[in-house]
Specification:
The protein is α+β, with helices and mostly antiparallel strands and 271 residues long. The chain is built from two helices and 13 strands; from the N terminus they run αβββββββββαββββ. The protein starts with a helix and ends with a strand.
Length: 271
């Protein structure tokens, strides 16, 4: 009888201990979940407070821009990854076309179906840029209706594409020809009659690659009302250097360095 009572006591003690351990573990797990929920709630409240105060708050952003340059135009896609409250790393893909200051479209085309042309133009010059940089928030919005000021610097690799420019002409012998400056520079410049350009599609098989480097700096004014949307105006300068000289217009010195300003309209989103 004593043995049975002793066994019952041992079993009861074990069950009590097990129940206590289970209760402690359950309470610990519940407290852990509650702590995580509280931390998440605090983060959300902090983000809401930052948005109410006009602070840009995000972990990553994607922006698309259309730029008007002093010597052409372009478009770009930019990915941003936030590193601190004010600093972000950026990754850039940009496509641009550079024009010479002396380029002028001619209206001396009598045929309605002919393309306008640029007299003396040797090449269309396009660039594809891949770059890395940083953005720094100089000033937060202050409120939802404010403007954030962001400074950026980017640099990287650029690949230029020099595509020969073709004209439809009548040469000094009265023959109709489609030529580039490289085919016959004399006839190209001193044609008896120019009917128009041969069009965008002509010359791609003769593209010459012009590799180089670029550096770009800008100020971006973000006036978007909501934190998760990018609506900005960007003003900046850029410098491109190529290993080979670039010919764009005849009777003008070819260039290795291209310096330009730009204004860009930027749209995108933040997360």
């Amino acid at each position: 009888m004593k043995k049975i009572i002793f066994l019952i006591f041992i079993v009861s003690l074990g069950l009590t201990s097990f129940a206590q351990d289970t209760t402690v573990k359950a309470n610990t797990k519940a407290n852990s979940k509650a702590d995580k929920k509280a931390e998440k709630r605090q983060r959300i409240n902090a983000i809401i407070k930052q948005e109410e105060e006009g602070n840009l708050s995000f972990t990553k952003q994607t922006a698309i821009g259309i730029s008007l340059r002093t010597n052409g135009y372009g478009a770009f896609v930019e990915l941003g990854r936030r590193k601190s409250a004010r600093f972000s790393n950026t990754y850039l893909l940009e496509i641009t076309e550079t024009k010479h200051p002396k380029e002028e479209k001619s209206d001396r085309v009598e045929n309605f179906f002919s393309n306008t042309f640029i007299y003396g133009k040797i090449n269309n010059f396009y660039q594809v840029k891949l770059g890395f940089g940083q953005q720094y928030i100089l000033g937060q919005k202050g409120n939802k209706n404010g403007v954030a000021v962001i400074a950026s610097m980017q640099g990287g690799f650029t690949m230029g594409f020099a595509k020969p420019y073709y004209l439809n002409i009548q040469d000094a012998n009265g023959q109709d020809r489609t030529i580039s400056y490289y085919d016959d520079s004399t006839a190209f410049i001193y044609a008896l009659e120019i009917y128009g350009s041969a069009g965008f599609g002509k010359g791609w098989s003769e593209v010459k690659l012009k590799p180089g480097l670029f550096f770009k700096s800008a100020l971006r004014f973000d006036f978007g009302r909501y934190n998760e949307k990018i609506q900005a105006l960007e003003i900046g300068l850029s410098l491109e250097g190529f290993f080979d000289k670039i010919e764009i217009v005849a009777n003008n010195d070819p260039q290795r360095l291209l310096f330009q300003g730009h204004v860009a309209f930027v749209f995108g989103s933040r997360k």
